[in-house]
Design goal:
heterodimer, A: 374 residues, alpha/beta, Purple Acid Phosphatase, chain A, domain 2, eight-stranded mixed sheet, 19% strand, globular, B: 157 residues, alpha+beta, 2 domains, 2 helices, 7 strands, elongated, Calcineurin-like_PHP (chain A), acid phosphatase activity (chain A), signal (chain A)
């Protein structure tokens, strides 16, 4: 009787062990790569303290992306090499070998971004994963995607010409993603939209780029596909994400600008799965909650040859009586001299799939955090 | 001894399975349902150069100039954001805020460093609101006038 009891217990335990293993395996698959490459990243990462950059780094551990992208302001306050080694390295530095960084204004507080290039390229080394010291921009391919790291802190006609030539030379890739620090469009109350990157947007739009990733405003925001003027363009538009949520102190949102679809102010990372002609996104906070997710198709068809069309449409609600009306102006998109006309053609035109998102305004534990969708 | 070990293991497994397959899924379902019920558009009011009507009465350091303020209505709650331009010693200003919030009945955490020794943040709360106040800067090219900023976000509980 005793033997039978022990056998039964053993069998039950074995079955339970198998069930638990299956369950945990299923959980792990949430983060595992499905064959298509996964990239993840954020900007505004490492304060000069042991702050939330360690928690966002833990998220990267869970996601295990093929490449880690940074959207500038890698190390605060001045991008000094000693601070990189003390604060960035033990956190995001764990992924240094697969990091493809971009630089930010704080990284350039050190002349020439010396600390940034010393850290990523090697002390005194001119060229490396961060690109040439004199440039800070470069590109590479991941699967069927062409990825371009740009330098919004050193805008120049040289960089614009390089971008045009790079886009021209890579028209064979199905999808294009570009990333840099200062966003063209932002609903942030501190920085907001920035005209600095208009030349980037003009070229990327002309060459049918698909996704733009930025930081600078310490928050997460997703936009619907739009043209460089901020007009809605579901067919040929570029989808912009801001993920300045790597670890620096969080900013609040002001009035939502046109085409803003999702906004949240909390630390986390943006994960993108790059399919052959489409992409999935997830914004994951430091509690491992997916706050925003969805899918989009890459822009297909002939390159846009005309200047971006319709202007932005306002989503702002009226100001209450007795208060001054809000004013916001957007500079018209200039055309770039000397940029070759794109001749890229892609096969069939597709529109972007509407995403599904978590909506509402729950308050995750810890930080003040509001999020919602339009 | 072996039998005791097996019994303990058995009970632990039961507890694990009950938690994973019964308690946890029910919690997730509850969260999901709450989320779906909250599909309400946010309404934002904006005021440039002055504090918006109804802005909570919080201490404000002398000689600060209001940049913008926002009133946000969402899910029956009203939240506020404001930015001020300031000149002077940010550490002194942030210390003043920390002291004044305590004097006016707020429970204060901080100021603590969030980017560097010159970038400080104060978290505070009272019976009605949670508040986050920090100093930062806005550069040339950003929307709005560049300068040193105090930003406050006030969330209704």
């Amino acid at each position: 009787m005793k033997l039978i009891f022990q056998k039964i217990i053993k069998i039950v335990l074995l079955v339970m062990f198998l069930l638990i293993s299956l369950f945990e395996l299923k959980n792990l698959q949430v983060f595992a790569q499905s064959g298509d490459p996964v990239i993840a990243g954020a900007g505004d990462i490492s304060p000069r303290s042991n702050g939330p950059q360690f928690q966002t780094a833990n998220l990267l551990d869970s996601i295990n992306p093929a490449f880690v992208l940074t959207f500038g302001d890698n190390q605060y306050p001045d991008g000094i090499l000693a601070d990189f080694n003390t604060y960035y390295h033990p956190s995001w530095g764990r992924f240094k070998s697969r990091t493809r960084p971009s630089t930010g204004n704080h990284d350039y507080h050190t002349p020439g971004g010396a600390g940034y290039f010393d850290y990523f390229n090697g002390v005194g080394v001119n060229s490396g994963v961060a690109g040439d010291r004199s440039k800070g921009y470069y590109s590479y391919n991941v699967g069927s995607w062409h990825l371009i790291a740009l330098n919004s802190e050193a805008m120049s006609s040289t960089q614009n010409a390089w971008l045009a030539a790079d886009l021209q030379a890579n028209q064979g890739t199905a999808c294009t993603l570009a990333y840099w620090h200062e966003p063209r469009f932002s609903s942030g109350a501190v920085h907001g939209s920035n005209n600095r990157s208009v030349p980037f947007w003009d070229l990327l739009y002309q060459y049918k780029a698909d996704v733009v990733l930025n930081g600078h405003d310490h928050l997460y925001e997703r936009f619907a596909p739009q043209n460089p003027s901020g007009g809605s363009d579901p067919t040929n538009g570029i989808r912009e994400f801001i993920a300045g949520t790597g670890g620096a102190g969080l900013y609040a949102f002001g009035s939502p600008i046109a085409n803003s679809q999702f906004r949240v102010s909390t630390h986390g990372v943006l994960k993108l799965t790059l399919h052959q002609t489409s992409y999935d996104w997830q914004f994951i906070n430091i509690n491992s909650q997916v706050l925003d997710s969805g899918s989009g198709n890459c822009v297909m068809g002939s390159a846009v040859t005309s200047t971006p069309g319709s202007g932005p449409t306002s989503t702002r609600t009226p100001t209450p009586p007795n208060l001054p009306s809000p004013t916001r102006t957007r500079t018209p998109t200039p055309t770039l001299p000397g940029v070759p006309s794109p001749t890229r053609t892609r096969t069939p035109t597709q529109s972007v799939v509407s995403p599904t998102q978590i909506v509402g305004s729950p308050t995750p534990t810890g930080n003040i955090c509001t999020y919602f969708k339009n | 001894m072996k039998k005791l070990f097996l019994i303990v293991l058995f009970i632990a497994s039961i507890v694990y399975i009950v938690y994973k397959f019964i308690i946890l899924p029910s919690q997730e379902k509850k969260t999901s349902a709450q989320t779906n019920n909250n599909q309400v558009q946010e309404t934002v009011y904006e005021s440039a150069g002055s504090l918006i009507l109804g802005f909570p009465d919080i201490p404000v350091y002398s000689n600060l100039v209001v940049d913008k303020s926002f009133k946000k209505e969402l899910n029956g709650k009203t939240n506020y954001v404001a930015t001020w331009f300031f000149e002077g010693d940010n550490k002194e200003i942030m210390k003043w805020y920390a002291d004044e919030f305590v004097k006016t009945g707020w429970t204060v955490v901080g100021p603590f460093i969030y980017e560097s020794e010159n970038k400080l943040e104060i978290d505070a709360e009272n019976s009605m609101y949670k508040l986050r106040l920090l100093n930062t800067e806005r550069e040339e090219g950003d929307t709005g006038k560049p300068g040193e900023l105090i930003m406050v976000e006030i969330i209704q509980k």
